[in-house]
Amino acid sequence: MTTQEQEAGERRWAPTYRAHCPRCRQSGRAFSSYGNAEDAARGHAGKHNHTTHVVDQYGIRVVGSTQRPGDDLASH
Question: Could you list the residue range(s) of the whole structural domain that residue 57 is in?
Answer without folding.
Answer: 14-68
